[in-house]
């Protein structure tokens, strides 16, 4: 038996150790790999964002130069000129080259060439070396080509092209349409050419490692620029370039020349360029190799040491367990006796002492549990009673003040019987309200309370308003909770008719038995509630709490208020019952009191 238990302990330790080491190594390796990949991509993306921002600033300088050309009046007049008027063409050419282009070359020395082409086929151009190119390209063909790639909205388009059609110079052209003086319709093209190598100065500080590189693509997935510093970086195929282009603001892994590369790209909202950085995956994951080697070595050493410890532990624990097992076997036979300690001071000795102590204190603990449970129930009942009596005494002082003010006004203005009627109704309501007994009353009692309230309300609003009571006579003596019906009527008058009471308005009180429930329904055809307000009210009711005095006036005004009416019913009959609300905006509201039928 001892040998069997020892073998089981050894097998368990071996399984736990191997599983733990393998899971820790597996999770650590892949988690570290994923985190390093994310960190690398995040760092590269941050570098691209910074470089993209600097590139956009660089391109915006050329946009400012194009703005100067667009706002120059002679350029607009040139677009509206008669193409057969050679003298005017000479004057505009001389003026624009001398006063506009030369100034822009001074302000922006990076510009290689500028030209304006009208839809009439005439062009004015100048380069930074003071050699005009107006006669070295075909304006009409150039105009048609640029017009097809440039939007009419005047937005700038950046193309990898130049007037000389020399691809080896890697020229980039910024193009936008321009209108003349007499029409808002675009009537020409303005273009500024500059060398893509100027962008390299922005990207030179980047350290992309031994195998890293970067390149730029335009909005048509055409390669605009590629760094030439890394000669070992292989070229991309057309399909690979297209795949990278289709994942802007994302990362893609492509196999190039038998080696995996991570491509991280960001698309500029200004230039519509896609800036891409590529780094070999092997360089990114080089730290993972160190983690893997360290994990294997540490895991092997830990396994050997832990197995030796498991053997010693298994042999040392089986003997004391057999003693404890024998004692438990005697307990199973009904011999509830204390175990002999034999002077043990280790954990097993503590376990035996705890077992002996458990036997002597078990009965005491059970007795204390029962006493604590009875005390808790008594305190809960007392709190329940106090909460109910507090609800009984929640009478709206504003209503009493308004009523007394009404009585005062009648007393001053005239000597009439209305005062007597109001005072009698008020006295009945006060006597009915201040009773704090818990027994249920009948629906007839609640209707009498509502009648007294309507008597006072008649003098306050200055008109009669009759409530339709359609309760079957057999239900007038049905039981319900005190002070639950009048607050609903008062709430309707406060909220259902905000524009005043009209002849079409009504309030209807009904009652019925549905299954094991007794329902009292109060309906009106007032303004109702919006869906948001209804949802909020139902959420408040579901909380089964009293209304806060500083809460929403819709739930608390009207004396005891809707929330406390709901809670009073639950205190008497249980939380399965209470108040529910149905309402449709601009159609009316139905308040339903749910109580047990018996």
TrEMBL record:
Q: Please report the stretch or stretches of sequence annotated as the HAMP domain.
A: 315-367
Q: Which stretches are annotated as coiled coil?
A: 367-394
For the protein in the UniProt heading, the enzyme class is transferase
Entry keywords, A to Z:
ATP-binding, Cell membrane, Coiled coil, Kinase, Membrane, Nucleotide-binding, Phosphoprotein, Transferase, Transmembrane, Transmembrane helix, Two-component regulatory system
Q: Where in the cell is it found?
A: Cell membrane
SMART domains, per the entry: HAMP (SM00304)
Tell me the superkingdom of the source. Bacteria
Transmembrane feature ranges: 295-314
Q: What is its main location?
A: membrane
Question: What CDD domains does the record point to?
Answer: HAMP, PDC2_HK_sensor
User: What is this protein's record name?
Assistant: histidine kinase
* Native source organism of the sequence: Paenibacillus pseudetheri
The top of its lineage is: Bacteria, Bacillati, Bacillota, Bacilli, Bacillales
């Amino acid at each position: 038996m001892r040998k069997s238990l020892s073998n089981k302990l050894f097998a368990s330790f071996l399984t736990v150790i191997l599983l733990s080491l393998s899971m820790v190594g597996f999770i650590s390796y892949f988690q570290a790999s994923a985190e390093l990949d994310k960190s690398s991509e995040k760092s590269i993306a941050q570098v691209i964002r910074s470089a993209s921002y600097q590139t956009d600033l660089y391109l915006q300088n050329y946009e400012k130069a194009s703005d100067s050309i667009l706002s120059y009046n002679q350029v607009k007049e040139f677009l509206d000129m008669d193409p057969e008027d050679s003298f005017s063409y000479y004057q505009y050419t001389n003026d624009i080259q001398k006063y506009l282009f030369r100034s822009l070359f001074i302000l922006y020395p990076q510009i290689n060439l500028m030209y304006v082409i009208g839809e009439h086929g005439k062009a004015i151009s100048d380069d930074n070396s003071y050699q005009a190119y107006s006669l070295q390209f075909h304006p009409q063909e150039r105009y048609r080509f640029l017009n097809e790639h440039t939007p009419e909205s005047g937005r700038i388009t950046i193309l990898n092209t130049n007037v000389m059609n020399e691809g080896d110079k890697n020229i980039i052209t910024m193009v936008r349409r321009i209108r003349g003086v007499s029409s808002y319709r675009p009537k020409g093209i303005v273009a500024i050419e500059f060398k893509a190598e100027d962008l390299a100065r922005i990207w030179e500080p980047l350290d992309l490692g031994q195998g890293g590189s970067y390149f730029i693509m335009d909005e048509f997935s055409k390669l605009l620029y590629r760094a030439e510093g890394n000669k070992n970086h292989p070229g991309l195929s057309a399909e690979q370039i297209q795949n990278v282009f289709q994942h802007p603001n994302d990362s893609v892994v492509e196999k190039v020349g038998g080696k995996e590369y991570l491509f991280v790209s960001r698309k500029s909202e200004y230039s519509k360029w896609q800036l891409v950085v590529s780094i070999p995956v092997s360089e990114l994951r080089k730290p993972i190799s160190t983690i893997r080697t360290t994990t294997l070595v540490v895991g092997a050493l830990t396994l050997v040491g832990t197995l030796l410890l498991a053997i010693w532990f298994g042999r040392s624990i089986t003997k004391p367990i057999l003693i404890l097992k024998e004692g438990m076997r005697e307990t199973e036979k009904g011999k509830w006796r204390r175990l002999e300690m034999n002077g043990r001071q280790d954990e097993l000795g503590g376990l035996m002492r705890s077992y002996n102590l458990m036997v002597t204190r078990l009965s005491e603990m059970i007795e204390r549990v029962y006493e604590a449970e009875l005390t808790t129930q008594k305190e809960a009942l007392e709190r329940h009673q106090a909460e109910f009596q507090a609800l009984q005494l929640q009478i709206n002082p504003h209503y009493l003040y308004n009523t007394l003010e009404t009585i005062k006004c009648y007393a001053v203005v005239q000597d009439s019987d209305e005062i007597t009627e109001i005072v009698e109704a008020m006295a009945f309501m006060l006597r009915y309200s201040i009773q704090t007994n818990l027994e249920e009353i009948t629906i007839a009692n609640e209707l009498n309370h509502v009648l007294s309230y309507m008597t006072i309300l008649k003098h306050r609003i200055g008109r009669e308003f009759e409530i339709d009571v359609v309760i079957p006579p057999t239900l007038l003596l049905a039981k319900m909770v005190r002070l639950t019906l009048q607050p609903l009527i008062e709430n309707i008058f406060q909220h259902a008719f905000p524009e005043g009471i009209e002849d079409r308005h009504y309030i209807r009180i009904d009652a019925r038995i549905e299954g094991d429930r007794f329902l009292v329904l109060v309906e009106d055809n007032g303004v109702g509630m919006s869906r948001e307000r209804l949802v909020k009210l139902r959420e408040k009711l579901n909380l089964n709490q009293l209304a806060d005095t500083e809460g929403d006036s819709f739930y608390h005004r009207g004396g005891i208020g809707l929330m406390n009416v709901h809670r009073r019913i639950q205190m008497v009959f249980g939380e399965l019952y209470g108040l529910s609300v149905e309402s449709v905006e601009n159609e009316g509201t139905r308040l339903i009191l749910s109580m047990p039928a018996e």
